[in-house]
Design brief:
Elements: E1 28-36, H1 41-44, E2 49-54, H2 67-70, E3 76-78, H3 80-92, E4 98-101, H4 107-117, E5 125-129, H5 135-139, E6 147-150, H6 157-164, H7 169-184, E7 188-189, E8 195-204, H8 210-223, E9 230-234, H9 256-268, E10 273-275
Parallel strand pairs: 2-4, 4-5, 5-6, 6-8, 8-9, 9-10
Antiparallel strand pairs: 1-2, 1-3, 7-8
Helix pairs in contact: 8-9
Length: 289
């Protein structure tokens, strides 16, 4: 943490005394620990996914629905012992998994914690991230994470720069996906349809950018066997969290035509997984932090 290079930004700041792009301190900043029923069905089980939301983010997308925690530094600082206690409280509540949400900027500390507690965890560990991951950092998680749940946001470097300040996102995310798949291989489910191991890739279709979404899917199909992974193709974009003056092209919801054309391509490429109705595009689904 004294010269932080955990993520691809390589800010090289001392997080004990200053903040890098993610705006997260060296201590765990935890914004929410709770059962969450609105993840993909294969992650929720009967009582919900056991989510741990980390404060800070190495992307800072301009349309982020969790902006209060991703950029606002909202949360409680926790020691490793306190975070361990919080994780096992989720187990006691009947969580179907331990879902680490936006954990990238704490990768090394979490690898150390997981190495110690993984043998005692009776449920899978989910790494729920934006896809902007260092391959070297991901290798520290080998054998500690059961399910990788990354976004694959953009094919265009220009869009990645405009909306997430990361023009190298497409190549970085592609390399990260390959490493995740190398570690976990093909998806594995239990008898109740819950995902126990593998890679589930999320993609959010943005208004006016369906063609970029199509290129994302083509790239993903070239990178990984479509039958070995699962795709979550999301239509839940809502303009409630974006500056509509600065980004007028993002000032509306995705149309049925936009989402339907991307979905048609996903099916033709052989993807299996989860698809959303447009009714999911409501800010009501955003947790309170």
């Amino acid at each position: 943490m004294d010269v932080c290079q955990i993520c691809p930004r390589g800010c090289r700041v001392n997080r004990e005394s200053s903040l890098g792009f993610c705006r997260a301190p060296s201590e765990f900043l935890i914004s929410r620990v709770a059962l969450h029923p609105f993840e993909e069905p294969c992650l929720c089980g009967e009582k919900g996914s056991g989510t741990v939301f980390f404060g800070g983010c190495n992307l800072g997308c301009v349309y982020c629905q969790n902006d209060a925690i991703s950029r606002g530094q909202k949360g409680e600082k926790m020691t490793e012992a306190e975070l361990e206690k919080a994780i096992f409280s989720l187990v006691e509540m009947g969580a179907s998994n331990v879902n680490l949400v936006t954990p990238t900027h704490y990768t090394l500390a979490l690898a150390s914690l997981l190495e110690r507690i993984k043998p005692r965890l009776p449920i899978p560990v989910v790494w729920n991230c934006g896809g902007y991951e260092s391959v070297d950092a991901l290798r520290t998680l080998d054998g500690l994470v059961d399910v990788y749940l990354p976004d694959f946001k953009y094919h265009s470097p220009a869009l990645a720069e405009k909306y997430s300040h990361a023009p190298d996102y497409p190549e970085v995310a592609s390399a990260a996906l390959l490493e995740m798949y190398r570690q976990r291989g093909g998806v594995k489910f239990d008898s109740e349809g819950q995902l126990k191991s593998g890679v589930l890739v999320r993609h959010l279709v943005l208004p006016t950018h369906r063609k970029d979404s199509m290129e994302v899917l083509r790239t993903l199909a070239d990178l990984l066997p479509t039958s070995d992974i699962r795709l979550s193709l999301m239509s839940q974009y809502t303009p409630d969290f974006v500056n509509k003056t600065t980004y007028p092209e993002l000032s509306r919801r995705v149309t049925s035509f936009e989402y339907g054309s991307v979905l048609d391509l996903a099916l033709s490429l052989g993807f299996e997984g989860y698809f959303q109705s447009r009714e999911s595009a409501k800010k009501d689904y955003t947790p309170e932090f």
